[in-house]
């Protein structure tokens, strides 16, 4: 039976891919640091734990920005908000390029995180413009854009830094943001006409309304915690790998870290199938199955950690199933009423980045204390927690 709100027009495939590309460019800005973190630390003369503040505060600022700014998507045009936030990202990147000190670079990265909101408006924007039975597939398309952006960011940053200079990485990122900002008005349409009975809430009411909405939908809270752990594994492991592989014990260049990142390309092929799987068997069941596979991959990090070729195995496993866990989590809020989706996604993503920001710092700090053993052990503990929470949610969904 068709959904009562199933009204056209729908996004064209071309616009779906354009939105995915725009999201990829904007998300990529947080990931250039991954392969080059040791080079940036050396240039500024700071420790592994201190440089870990860059990705950590970036993610925490993003969580704050999501809390304060993303709810506006339920009141104002996503198109207008996306353009404004993209401009904020561009200015922040310029600050990072030209800052002569670590403090300035850290401030620029933190402000950048605060304005990296637009990619997280896109799923709610698209969900209102696709047929319900295609929600998983379209969410997967947007996720692929994110994966490609992260992939190009990490591979490109490693190569550019190895043969040129890490400042050039952020100069190119700023140029890409200018192009993306100019393209957004052409890709996104303005806010649709709302019904005459809709009550427009004030900004304060929109923000405060997040808390009772989250309490009314506890499955979204748990999904946010699961994704915080899932994304935390991703960030902490890649930051640890960059420090581990470029350490004197391993002796590789930053370009090798970038090459390893290229194995994430497998996710581009697999992610749409994982979205379709979640559509077919339900997000809770799909997430539990994927979390088990992820745990196997994470468990291999420690025993395979000192052999570059063996490391490819857990990296491929983690990059394959990690996005699927996120897709399943997002579906727990995107399948709910359209007028509350953006705010529920706000809660989901806020939890995700708060956890990921903490994991970024703890990951580099654990490497500072116990090397690769500490970093891999932290990832395994988080993976076990994901399996337990996913199993609990699957049981509740069945009941």
Q: Features of this protein?
A:
399 residues; Growth Hormone, Chain: A; mainly alpha
Give a brief outline of the structure.
This protein is an all-alpha fold.
Walkthrough of the structure:
- By secondary structure, the chain is mainly α.
- The protein has a single domain, classed as Growth Hormone, Chain: A.
- It is 79% helix and 0% strand.
- The chain is built from 18 helices and no strands.
- It has helices spanning 13-28, 33-44, 48-51, 53-69, 78-98, 102-115, 118-127, 135-163, 166-187, 203-208, 210-216, 218-245, 254-261, 265-281, 283-299, 301-304, 308-334, 341-398.
- Helix 17 (308-334) packs across helix 18 (341-398).
- The longest helix is centred in the last third of the chain and has 58 residues, at 341-398.
- The radius of gyration is 20 Å and the shape is globular.
- The two termini are 24 Å apart.
- 55% of the residues are buried.
- Residues 15-399 form the Major facilitator superfamily (MFS) profile domain.
- Pfam families: MFS_1 (PF07690).
- One of its GO terms (molecular function) is transmembrane transporter activity.
- InterPro entries: MFS, MFS_dom, MFS_trans_sf.
- Keywords: Membrane, Transmembrane, Transmembrane helix.
